[in-house]
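STRUCTURE:
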């Protein structure tokens, strides 16, 4: 017809693209080559949105249940309101918010464009995610410092570490995390993505230009250096606490090693430090890839390759895993936590059974 490839099999028949009379047929030649093989693998065998969804949904449900139980256990059982568990319950609130935002990440994975929830929802969700991320890091850090004071300076801890001061400090941690995450409100927004795959809807209802609005880091944030500055702050939020945690647990380990294990208090300290050490280890293993991925994204100025996208998906799964796994660690390593959860569930089930029996008795009396 004057355009296109007139002989579709010229390259396959000759074994070389050089013999093709029309250069346009070069784009159709590698039908069974490496490019087609990679495409088939990515679209059929390893369907990324399906795989990630299969992982995310059970993770979210498990994490929501565990963190809600942690909050209820601490606030409904007075003997669980120690300074350590006050930190852990507040951290459970932070993890709960992170998991509640997970469906939006899934939505953007399946349908990145168009973003239908408006600019305000885009800014608030990204702000809440960053705020809770910072808040969790601060909680782990200050909880470890509190344990250091309790183990290494027990007399000072009796007067310095109180429930009232712990609650006030937790409030300050949330405020500090919110202030640190505030630049995200300027950094992200809904923008039209130019030169990429179009969205599924049109701006004017179906016949005009495709709707390519996306909730993303704005061009202004990239060009002004705000994105790079925020990535530096985010990395400092990870690296500085990481160094503090390493120093604190080294000092705690040295102190406990030199002390005798005879007293019950020392054994309790050792058990608590073991539990927190495992929590910190899980935190580092889950969050290190997440921060590496964000740094790579920042250095690439918002662009990404297939390898970076796969790495970001894996790091995101680990990020949400860290928000869901803490209650499981408490349950595995703390008999006190296990007993409190069992007591809470048993009391609830006993109350429900008693209510059913009462209602049944009233119904029988009314019937007679």
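SEQUENCE:
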């Amino acid at each position: 017809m004057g355009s296109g490839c007139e002989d579709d099999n010229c390259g396959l028949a000759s074994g070389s693209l050089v013999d093709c009379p029309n250069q346009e047929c070069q784009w159709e030649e590698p039908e069974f080559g490496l490019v087609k093989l990679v495409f088939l693998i990515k679209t059929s065998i390893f369907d990324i949105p399906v795989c990630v969804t299969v992982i995310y949904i059970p993770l979210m449900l498990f994490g929501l249940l565990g963190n809600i139980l942690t909050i209820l256990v601490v606030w409904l059982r007075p003997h669980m309101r120690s300074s350590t568990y006050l930190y852990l319950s507040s951290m459970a609130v932070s993890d709960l918010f992170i998991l509640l935002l997970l469906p939006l990440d899934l939505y953007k994975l399946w349908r990145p464009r168009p973003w239908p929830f408006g600019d305000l929802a885009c800014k608030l969700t990204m702000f809440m995610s960053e705020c809770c991320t910072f808040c969790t890091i601060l909680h782990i850090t200050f909880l470890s410092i509190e344990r250091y004071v309790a183990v290494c300076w027990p007399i000072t801890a009796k007067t310095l570490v109180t429930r009232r001061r712990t609650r006030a400090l937790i409030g300050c941690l949330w405020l500090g995390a919110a202030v640190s995450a505030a630049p995200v409100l300027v950094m992200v927004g809904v923008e039209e993505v130019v030169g990429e795959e179009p969205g599924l809807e049109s701006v004017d209802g179906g016949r005009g230009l495709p709707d390519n609005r996306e909730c993303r880091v704005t061009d202004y944030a990239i060009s002004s250096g705000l994105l790079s500055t925020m990535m530096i702050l985010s990395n400092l939020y990870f690296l500085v606490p990481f160094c503090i945690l390493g120093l604190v647990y080294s000092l705690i380990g040295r102190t406990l090693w030199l002390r005798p294990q005879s007293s019950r208090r020392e054994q309790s300290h050792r058990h608590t430090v073991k539990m927190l050490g495992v929590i910190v280890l899980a935190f580092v293993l889950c969050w290190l890839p997440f921060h590496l991925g964000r740094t790579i994204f920042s250095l690439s100025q918002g662009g990404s390759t297939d390898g970076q996208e796969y790495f970001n998906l894996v790091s995101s799964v680990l990020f949400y895993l860290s928000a869901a796994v803490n209650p499981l660690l408490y349950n595995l390593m703390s008999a006190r936590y296990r007993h409190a959860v069992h007591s809470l569930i048993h009391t609830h089930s006993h109350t429900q059974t008693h209510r059913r029996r009462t209602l049944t008795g009233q119904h029988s009396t009314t019937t007679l």
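REMARK: Confidence is low (pLDDT under 50) at residues 1-45, 363-368.
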